[in-house]
Write a structure and sequence with these properties.
Blueprint lengths: L1 E8 L2 E7 L4 H8 L9 E9 L2 E8 L4 E2 L3 H15 L6 E6 L2 E11 L2 E7 L4 E8 L5 E8 L3 E6 L12 H9 L9 E9 L2 E8 L3 E3 L3 H15 L4 E6 L2 E6 L8 E14 L1
Length: 264
């Protein structure tokens, strides 16, 4: 039997398991029809009263560097267990580096965090699909890899394809030997964008913290978006604050605990 907690951030759901990273366990637990179900498992090892080390395993068993939403979910679980008051900070070491999550508010099982997400690294890139179609995008690293595509169509179709199909092909494109997360961005105005997400190791997801950061970075850097940007995904909205250049990006959003339990 393994104990777990389950949480979600804007519909992006994670299991939190205390102990060493175990990809095979993650595959079993993430199965939605035969087990608990989740987009991934965050394995947590406490290193202090408000500090921990986490490793993220996607639903397919692959290990990812970081999840912005998953990190907040772990922070919410730690805040709940230690009765952390608003205004205090929880520190988590990830495979992408140290992340500090400042608890803005907490009520019952729901928390709001402002999390430092590091400094985005941005570059333009064009890739060629198997049918020779060329797709222009922006490569963004926020501790993990992203390929961001701007679309004009509100349905997020591009090159005659639905975004899910295009995201699937780009995710495993030869130009990305370790695969990549793929995001599609529709710019609403200088202060708001809407996105769709094809997540590496998972597929289409309702939200992504690092995807929110990557799309905001690309929009601010390439489309003149404001430094305070509201990013809307099917699972909800998150706020980005980024002054550009070498400033750290701040991601503000919710995390909600769902349940605790035991699984075989």
């Amino acid at each position: 039997m393994r104990r777990f907690a389950k949480a979600h951030a804007c519909g992006n759901d994670f299991l939190i398991v205390e102990g060493e990273c175990d990809p095979e366990l993650a595959i079993r637990l993430c199965a939605r029809r035969t087990s608990v179900g989740a987009d991934g498992v965050e394995f947590l090892e406490w290193t202090g009263d408000r500090e921990g080390r986490i490793r993220l395993v996607n639903a397919d068993g692959s290990i990812a560097e970081i999840s912005g939403n998953g990190t907040r979910c772990v922070a919410a679980w730690m805040a709940y267990q230690k009765a952390v008051p608003a205004g205090e900070t929880i520190v988590l070491e990830t495979d992408a580096g140290r992340r500090e999550c400042r608890l803005m508010s907490a009520r019952d099982n729901r928390c709001e965090f402002a999390a430092g997400m590091g400094v985005p690294v941005i570059a333009d890139r064009q890739i060629t699909l198997t049918d020779r179609t060329k797709v222009a995008g922006v490569v963004v690293s926020i501790g993990n890899p992203h390929f961001v595509i701007f679309v004009e169509d509100e349905s997020f179709r591009m090159h005659g394809l639905p975004w899910q199909a295009l995201g699937h092909e780009i995710c495993s494109h030869a130009d990305f030997p370790d695969q990549t997360n793929v995001e599609f961005v529709h710019v609403i105005d200088t202060n708001r964008i809407e996105i769709r997400i094809f997540e590496r190791g998972v597929g289409p997801t309702r939200s992504s913290g690092t995807g929110t950061c990557a799309t905001a970075a690309a929009t601010i850097a390439r489309r003149g978006g404001g430094s305070h940007l509201l990013v809307s995904a099917p699972g909800g909205e998150q706020q980005i604050d980024w002054a550009g250049n070498n400033a750290e990006m701040i991601l503000t959003g919710p995390a909600e605990l769902i349940c605790v339990g035991e699984a075989w």
